[in-house]
Amino acid sequence: MAYYLAVVPVHFSDEPTERELGDFNDALAAYDPRGKRGRISMRHNEAGDITFAIIVETSDDGEAKLKAREDVLAALRDTGHRSGAATVRADAIEVIPG
């Protein structure tokens, strides 16, 4: 098993507030396999998505993309986002071996 940095784009139907992003960050940090609870890196991309850089632990690149998608979807559910209110752009997830 290895750590991967995963960059996960999420499209929100309504622009989230700073508080909502903070709550999502806290929920997402709980999935860090290293037990870290720091600030998740995020930025807007040219497609209007907010991208989140997270750490996952898996055996290969393909599994890392799936795990990143699962973790982001779980954090969205943890913070009360309904299906359709936020969409993980699975086709655009990038992973970098750590």
What does this structure look like?
With 98 residues, the chain is α+β, with helices and mostly antiparallel strands. It is 31% helix and 32% strand. The chain contains two helices and five strands; from the N terminus they run E-H-E-E-H-E-E. Strands 1, 2, 3, 4 and 5 form a five-stranded antiparallel β-sheet that branches. The chain starts with a strand and ends with a strand. The mean pLDDT is 89.
Summarize the helices and strands and which ones pair or pack.
Layout (H helix, E strand, L loop, with lengths): L1 E11 L5 H12 L11 E4 L5 E9 L2 H18 L7 E3 L5 E4 L1
Antiparallel strand pairs: 1-3, 1-4, 1-5, 2-3
Kindly report how far apart the N and C termini lie. 11 Å
Question: What Rg do the Cα atoms give?
Answer: 12 Å
> Shape from CA axes?
globular
Number of strands: 5
Please state the structural category. Answer: alpha+beta
Mean pLDDT: 89
The helix count comes to 2
**Beta-strand share of residues:** 25-35%
What's the multimeric state? Answer: single chain
Percent helix: 25-40%
Unreliable residue stretches: none
Sheet having the most strands: 5 strands, antiparallel
Order of helices and strands: EHEEHEE
